[in-house]
Amino acid sequence: MEKQVDVSIIMGSDSDLAIMKDAAKFLEEIGISYEMTILSVHRCPEAAMRYAKSLNERKIKVIIAGAGGAAHLPGVFAAQVPCPVIGVPIMTKTLNGVDSLYSIVQMPSGIPVATVAINGAKNAGILAATIIATSNDEIYKKICNYKKEMNEAVLKKNEKLQSLGYSNYLEQM
Fold first, then answer.
1. 122 has a pLDDT exceeding 70
2. Whose C-alpha in 27, 111, 129, 138 is 20 to 30 A from the C-alpha of 64?
3. What are the C-alpha distances in Å from 35 to residues 10, 20, 40, 46, 129?
4. What does each C-alpha distance from 12 to 19, 94, 161, 171 come to in angstroms?
């Protein structure tokens, strides 16, 4: 029997891997299973649709889809699969990722795609984890702990700033 995977990380090109790895790293840290796939809805549409069907059959909980340029990948999967889809707009050379952002965030009514910042794959991983945490107490506790650690880190930095002043703080960075 195949192991249940909670999150599918999909990217349109291997050039997106340098960004999308951040989602995978966060999911690994928090203990959420995932798989990672390269599929282009433009260059291999049949394979992409077969994969979408397999996600339905396997009851994947969340999809994280990264794409640049026309960035149709997240929307196509959102149209095919009933689970939440998080789009990661990938930075492009021509329009600095604004084209990707607009392509992902401007979905028609009925086909929602949650969208993070350009190259914001880590936030996509965090959002996927918080979605899973709504029905998983262990992941919920890990997300709460993650946020607590962030809070403590910022407060420590502020203490240091107040103690040293900005110029000495900057020298130590």
1. yes
2. 138
3. 8, 12, 16, 19, 14
4. 12, 17, 43, 42
Name the helix (H) or strand (E) containing 66: strand 62-68
CA distance 54 to 100: 26
Query: Are residues 23 and 123 in contact, defined by beta-carbon separation less than 8 angstroms?
Result: no
The continuous run of DSSP H or E covering 64 comes out as strand 62-68
Give tens-digit pLDDT for 11-59. Answer: 999 999 999 999 999 999 999 999 999 999 999 999 999 999 999 999 9
Burial of 155 (0-12, 13-18, 19+ CB in 10 A): exposed
pTM: 0.94
Give the pair of three-digit tokens for residue 98: 């604004």
Digit-coded pLDDT (tens) for 131-164: 999 999 999 999 999 999 999 999 999 999 999 9
Q: Which residues of 23-58 are buried (b: 16+ CB within 10 A; e: fewer)?
A: bbebbeebebebebeebbbeeeeeebeebbeebeee
Report how far residue 113's alpha carbon sits from residue 80's, in angstroms, rounded to the nearest whole number. 12
